[in-house]
Amino acid sequence: MADYFIGIDGGGTSCRAALADKNGRILGRGKSGASNILTDPDTALKHIVEASSLAFAEARIEPDLSTTSAVLGLAGNNVGDAVSYVQARLPFRQSDIVSDGVIALQGAIGDEDGAIGIVGTGTVYIARHQGRLHSVAGWGFQVSDLGSGARLGQLALQESLLAYDNIHPMTGLSKAILAEFDNNPEKIVDFARLAKPGDFGRHTPKVFDFARQGDAAAIRILKTGAAGIDEALDAVNGITGTKGRLCLLGGLAPLYPEYLAERHRARLSEPLADALTGAVALAVKTYGAQAELRA
Amino acid sequence: MADYFIGIDGGGTSCRAALADKNGRILGRGKSGASNILTDPDTALKHIVEASSLAFAEARIEPDLSTTSAVLGLAGNNVGDAVSYVQARLPFRQSDIVSDGVIALQGAIGDEDGAIGIVGTGTVYIARHQGRLHSVAGWGFQVSDLGSGARLGQLALQESLLAYDNIHPMTGLSKAILAEFDNNPEKIVDFARLAKPGDFGRHTPKVFDFARQGDAAAIRILKTGAAGIDEALDAVNGITGTKGRLCLLGGLAPLYPEYLAERHRARLSEPLADALTGAVALAVKTYGAQAELRA
């Protein structure tokens, strides 16, 4: 019987699967619900199986996960216990759990050397040099993730309090943020004390909007963020050199380039494919040779 | 019988009381345990009474709190529920709960106009202009308190991760911090996720130590912190003008001046007295006139 390969792109809101043959040709796709292996590993497992079965169904092939090889790109993959738990319960013949960044890299730059910067609520950079992967930054907004949506939103709240206290001039951005909190700084403090990255990040679109209108505070915040990204991309270049593809991914990827240093902006290119395509390509790459041997 | 006045300086680790006569002459002092009205109001009440009674004992006067007027400077005074709870249960004839900053201001600059910057784990600025009080900044380390011990420590951890990722050069400060976390960035992330201001602040002495040795990262962090303080002091000057006493208080007060802008450094002076002295002076000032009327 034929060998099949599954790629999984799973995260906090959905789980997507792609089914491919040994040549990497995609035969079908499936989508199910959340697959956060940290917060709810059993539901994640259920949704991984469901998305995989739907991919078989779309391909009109009788699903047999026990003969299928899979690569799963899952957020939270750096927490050993969760990975072990899920790994031991996956129904595939063989499988590998990697980070969501690794499948995004594969999708964006294919098999060549190069790098991606994922610039969303968090930021992380992944480079491939002479076939070896390197991860840069991405340690969370409290002490890392400079330029991320979380950090930009946090800076915007800080800016609004500086304006409230007449430490910085009041601008449209600060006014808009204060208004959201009923012009009550205590409400900003209460919010910030418990805010998760996504909570801060929800204030970030305003920063880009006001910057576009020339708001001095918004522009200063984005320059601070962009400087953080520029420095990280310099470190990436220290690994890969300045050849090879460099892609920005994530929610802020379309918004940031105009604020970045010319040396980086000039090198940016569109990703070749998405993370799900990267996952299934990795499955074929990782397990395809073994399948050949068995054939 | 004589009128007595009590000042209380209470916080998370201790409660200090000073007893004065109507002329503000201090007759006795007492000290007891923690008086955090937010986390444990009943213990705070117990320690307020205990410290007050000890002050009477030191003065060899039979304690009668029900005929004594008090001003209490208490951390956490901005949370209304806690204040109402404690206020309703205080044994004094009359009393006022104010912030720890207000008694520190009174102690530091006396009855004149002027300002203080409290530069410790947090930062807050309190100014008195034409008799009116103004508070600037001090909204907590997540979105305020620039230059505070918490922020400096947090920046030091961030710096060590930037050095770990080759985004910034490795310096002695970053090496020392990484070594404290077994050179494991995950441990820094875990620490930072739950760190309270004091947890970050514990890394701040190292920043000053390494800056003194010429460490480029440490100096950059202190310049960032000092810029935040300079800007806040400019805002304070916007309220008070540049006349009147300006004092820095708090744990970092002796360390910061050399990093501040000359325009502020040149104006700094030593506080006239401590916060406890400020509290008892406020008690006499607030309630002394009434006592005169009753006499």
TrEMBL record, chains A, B:
<feature type="domain" description="ATPase BadF/BadG/BcrA/BcrD type">
    <location>
        <begin position="6"/>
        <end position="255"/>
    </location>
</feature>
<dbReference type="InterPro" id="IPR002731">
    <property type="entry name" value="ATPase_BadF"/>
</dbReference>
<protein>
    <submittedName>
        <fullName>ATPase BadF/BadG/BcrA/BcrD type</fullName>
    </submittedName>
</protein>
<dbReference type="InterPro" id="IPR052519">
    <property type="entry name" value="Euk-type_GlcNAc_Kinase"/>
</dbReference>
<dbReference type="Pfam" id="PF01869">
    <property type="entry name" value="BcrAD_BadFG"/>
</dbReference>
<dbReference type="InterPro" id="IPR043129">
    <property type="entry name" value="ATPase_NBD"/>
</dbReference>
